[in-house]
Structures are given as structure tokens and as C-alpha cells.
């Protein structure tokens, strides 16, 4: 079972690598649906930084939080003041 | 969302706080390993989140890996409640007993509402149902109810149909009375009714008024009780006879006598100021006394009233019975002559009002005599009355 799970996860990683795309759906400055995450680098109410593999996307604002998330995607909510790409 | 909340509550969840250098690493580890986190709030080197109770050990392990420390703030949900109240066995037993009792009691009928039409009596119907085994506190059984319905229809010929609908622990009995189809009347019409008019009392005829039939008596003639007054057979001049339904009025002077009496000494019942009030509460067929007193001993009579509380229009299976035991004493009263006469005259007036006065009767003369004999007062009244003494006696003939 564990092997199968690991295999599945690695398949997903490969798929994401192939797609290698970051997809962001920004709804005003209150919510962002982010796809293509490889992990969270920084998480506090003023700043959320997400690693995409090639670069880091930094969201700044007030009362920022992750509403829900899975391995590759997450929903950020709060008052977003800026989005920054860190290479 | 409600389902999600309910499931989370059933499986249990806990709020926690992670303090350390890299709380973000904890999030990454958790998400990659399928650990579900929600309500995540990040602060400087701190993370507040919620997770399932089942994932608690894994969460602690990941916190250690992330060089942080996990502090449980609060636990919620059913597993948490079970753990808290684990030592309170009585509470759990009470809950189980309560649920079991509720399930068991809901199998009984605790309230019977009978909707009766004016032709039938609710008290009678309730008693009939009780004798057939359908009363408040009986166990609900569909087959038995069908039998009761059938038996009720068979036992009481006045009932056309009966339905017993059970809603939870309430039973509603609906009844409909039998309506005559009118077939009997049709048969009666086919029969030829011939009737005679006969005398109901002894007397002297004063007035005859015959509408149909042949008068067999004349004015001034004396008649006896049961004597034929008007015959239903009419004879014509050509010798033919015709049978008819006699109709008419025959007035006669009759005599009537009545004797009223009252003893000189008699017992008079008087209520005293003393009374005992007794209350009883009936829940699910079991009586609980509210007032701590037994039935009083002595000369008492009882007034009973029952109160049935309702909730949202439904009767509750609770009855409060109030019994008022009133003490009385018997006084020996000696009646004077004048008082005795007064009482007897009043009784005579009542008799005249209810027994003698009518459209077909009038009092011509009245003689009263008051006397005292053997410690008893008597009032003898002799009446001369003019009244209709006709009574119809049908003779049924078939074609």
C-alpha cells in the first residue's frame, strides 16, 4: 500500500513537472486560488511565500491565511496588497 | 458544510499551537503526508491550526521534525466527551436508560382522543374500547387495533364505521353513526294501517271531534279505560266496509287524585366547613400522590375533577386528579304543621306544572285536604280535569 502511495505521489510530481505551470486565479484582492505549489516557505498573517520550484511567489497583505490546501494547490484569503515573484 | 462539521465532531478534533523556528515546514510535511489541517492562522514563529484527533500523534511527530513544539489548546468532539465522562458511569447509564425508556414508552398509547358525532356518547365509546382492551397505557399493536375496530362494529349496531389512527403515542378514534336507509319506512307504507281510538281513562264525554273513523260513543256518555271510542272500520249506506286510520279527539271529564306526604321528623344533610383536598398525579399510568394525606374517615362525600395538560394542542400523558372530600353532618329536623303544609303545597304546584298542564288538558276544579297521621303530614288533592282521552291502537294488515 505504502509503495503504491509513494508511486502515485511520484507520478503526480512528474505530472506537475511536465505541466510545470503555476496557475493563479485572483479574485479581487481578497482571495487567490493557487495551483502548482511545491511547499510553503513563509506563513504569517502579513506574508505568505509559496515555492513553485522555479521561483517563489510572495503574497503580502493583512490577515492573510490559507483557507484550504492540498499537496499542489491552496486557497489564500485575506487583504492582499502585493504579489511578488522572487527568482 | 454542516455534514463536514458533524463528521468532524463525531470523529473528534483538536486545536493546537506550534511554536518553533519553522512552522511552515510542519505545514509542508502535514500536507504531503495527507494530514488534514484547517483554521490555520500564522503568526511570527507560531502557527495555530486544527486537526483530527486521530492525527494527533502524527502531528506531534511532524512538529518534532520541523524543530518545533506542538501544544494542544483544546479538544472537541464526541471522543473527547467520552473520555471526559469516562469515569462518570452513572451519567452514561442514565443516558442509556433514558434512551431505552423513551424507545420502550413510545410503543404504548398514552392518549386516546375520541371524535364522536352527537348521536353517540364519548363516555360509552371509551368504556366499550376499554372492555375490548384499548385504553390509555396499552401497548400498540396494529393487528390488535384491527380486531378492536371489527369488534366495535359488531358489538355496537349504532356504529357505521370506526377508524383508529395512531400518531406516535396518540390515538385518534373517528366514528360515524349508522344512518337508516329508509327501507323500513318503505315497507311500512306498503302496509295498510287501520287504527282504533281507545280511552285512556274513566270519565264522561264532553266533546267529540272525529276526522276519520266512526264514533262509537256520544257526548254525556260515561266511558271506562280501554273502551273503544272511534272505530277504524267505516260502514257506508250500500253495505260496504272501509278500513281507515282513525283520527280525532274525544274530550272527557276525568277525576284524578294524588297524595303527597312528608314525615314530621326527618334527617337533613348539611355541609360543614371542614374539607380535605387530595391531589394525585398520573404519569404513564402510574399514580403519584401530590398531597400527603389519605382518605378521611367519617361522614364525607367526594367531588372529583381531572385536569389533562396539553402541549401544542396535544394531550400529554399526564393527569392531575383533584379530590375534594367535603364533610357533612346529619341534623334531625322536626317540621311544624305550617312548614309541612308549605312544603307539600310547593310539591303539588310542581306536580301540576309538569304532569297536568298541557294543550289537551285543563283543570276544571281542585280540592285539597291537609292532614296529620302517624307523625306524617299528608296533602290529598282531587282534581276534575277535562282532557283528551284518545289513544291510538293500530291494527296492522298486510295486503
Note down, in words, how this protein is organized.
- The complex is a heterodimer of chains A (87) and B (399).
- Chain A has 87 residues and is an alpha+beta fold.
- Helix content of chain A is 21%, strand content 55%.
- The longest helix of chain A has 18 residues, at 2-19.
- By secondary structure, chain B is α+β, with helices and mostly antiparallel strands.
- Chain B has 9 helices and 26 strands.
- In chain B, the strands form 8 sheets. Chain B has a 5-stranded antiparallel beta sheet, with helices on one face.
- In chain B, α2 (23-32) packs across α3 (56-65).
- Chain B is elongated, with a radius of gyration of 44 Å.
- In chain B, 16% of the residues are buried.
- The mean pLDDT of chain B is 86.
- The interface between A and B is medium-sized, with 16 and 14 residues.
**Quaternary structure:** heterodimer
The CATH architecture of the domain at 2-83 in chain B can be named as: 2-Layer Sandwich
Helix content of chain B: 25-40%
N-to-C series of helices and strands of chain A: HEEEEEE
Rg of chain B is 44 Å
Q: How can the largest sheet of chain B be summarized?
A: 5 strands, antiparallel
Poorly predicted tracts of residues of chain B: none
Number of helices of chain A: 1
CATH topology of chain A: Immunoglobulin-like
**Biggest interface and its residues per chain?**
A-B, 16 and 14 residues
| Biggest sheet features of chain A | 6 strands, antiparallel
- Cα distance spanning the termini of chain A: 38 Å
Question: By helix and strand content of chain A, what is the structural category?
Answer: alpha+beta
Please give the count of helices of chain B.
9
Task: Please tally the β strands of chain B and state the result.
Answer: 26
Would you report the number of β strands of chain A? 6
Amino acid at each position: 500500500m505504502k509503495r503504491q502511495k509513494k508511486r502515485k505521489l511520484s507520478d503526480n510530481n512528474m505530472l506537475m513537472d511536465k505541466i510545470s505551470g503555476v496557475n493563479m486565479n485572483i479574485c479581487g484582492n481578497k482571495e487567490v486560488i493557487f495551483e502548482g505549489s511545491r511547499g510553503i516557505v513563509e506563513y504569517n498573517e502579513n506574508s505568505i511565500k509559496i515555492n513553485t520550484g522555479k521561483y517563489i511567489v510572495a503574497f503580502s497583505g493583512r490577515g492573510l491565511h490559507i483557507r484550504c490546501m492540498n499537496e499542489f494547490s491552496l486557497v489564500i484569503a485575506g487583504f492582499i496588497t502585493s504579489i511578488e515573484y522572487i527568482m | 458544510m454542516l455534514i463536514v462539521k458533524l463528521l468532524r465532531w463525531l470523529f473528534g478534533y483538536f486545536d493546537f499551537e506550534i511554536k518553533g523556528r519553522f512552522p511552515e515546514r510542519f505545514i509542508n510535511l502535514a500536507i504531503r503526508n495527507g494530514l488534514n489541517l484547517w483554521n490555520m492562522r500564522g503568526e511570527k514563529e507560531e502557527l495555530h491550526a486544527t486537526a483530527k484527533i486521530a492525527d494527533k500523534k502524527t502531528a506531534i511527530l511532524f512538529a518534532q521534525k520541523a524543530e518545533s513544539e506542538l501544544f494542544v489548546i483544546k479538544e472537541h468532539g464526541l471522543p473527547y466527551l467520552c473520555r471526559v465522562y469516562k469515569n462518570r458511569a452513572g451519567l452514561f447509564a442514565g443516558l442509556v436508560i433514558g434512551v431505552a425508556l423513551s424507545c420502550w414508552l413510545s410503543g404504548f398509547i398514552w392518549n386516546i382522543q375520541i371524535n364522536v358525532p352527537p348521536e353517540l356518547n364519548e363516555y360509552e365509546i371509551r368504556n366499550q374500547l376499554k372492555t375490548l382492551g384499548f385504553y390509555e397505557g396499552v401497548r400498540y399493536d396494529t393487528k390488535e387495533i384491527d380486531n378492536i375496530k371489527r369488534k366495535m362494529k359488531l358489538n355496537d349496531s349504532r356504529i357505521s364505521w370506526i377508524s383508529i389512527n395512531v400518531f406516535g403515542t396518540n390515538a385518534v378514534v373517528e366514528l360515524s353513526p349508522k344512518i337508516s336507509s329508509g327501507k323500513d319506512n318503505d315497507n311500512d307504507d306498503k302496509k295498510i294501517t287501520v287504527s282504533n281510538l281507545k280511552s285512556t281513562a274513566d270519565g264522561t264525554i264532553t266533546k267529540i271531534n272525529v276526522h276519520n273513523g266512526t264514533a262509537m260513543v256520544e257526548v254525556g256518555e260515561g266511558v271506562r279505560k280501554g273502551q273503544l271510542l272511534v272505530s277504524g272500520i267505516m260502514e257506508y249506506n250500500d253495505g260496504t266496509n272501509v278500513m281507515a286510520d282513525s283520527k280525532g279527539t274525544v274530550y272527557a271529564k276525568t277525576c284524578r287524585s294524588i297524595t303527597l306526604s312528608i314525615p314530621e321528623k326527618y334527617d337533613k344533610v348539611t355541609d360543614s366547613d371542614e374539607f380535605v383536598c387530595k391531589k394525585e398525579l398520573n404519569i404513564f399510568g402510574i399514580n403519584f400522590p401530590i398531597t400527603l394525606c389519605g382518605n378521611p374517615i367519617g361522614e364525607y362525600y367526594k367531588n372529583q375533577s381531572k385536569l389533562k395538560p396539553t402541549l401544542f394542542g396535544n394531550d400529554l400523558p399526564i393527569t392531575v386528579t383533584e379530590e375534594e372530600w367535603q364533610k357533612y353532618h346529619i341534623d334531625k329536623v322536626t317540621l311544624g304543621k305550617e312548614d309541612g303544609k308549605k312544603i307539600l303545597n310547593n310539591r303539588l304546584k310542581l306536580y301540576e306544572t309538569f304532569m297536568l298542564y298541557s294543550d289537551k288538558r285543563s283543570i276544571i276544579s281542585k280540592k285539597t285536604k291537609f292532614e296529620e297521621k302517624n307523625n306524617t303530614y299528608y296533602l290529598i288533592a282531587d282534581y276534575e280535569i277535562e282532557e283528551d282521552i284518545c289513544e291510538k291502537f293500530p291494527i296492522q294488515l298486510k295486503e
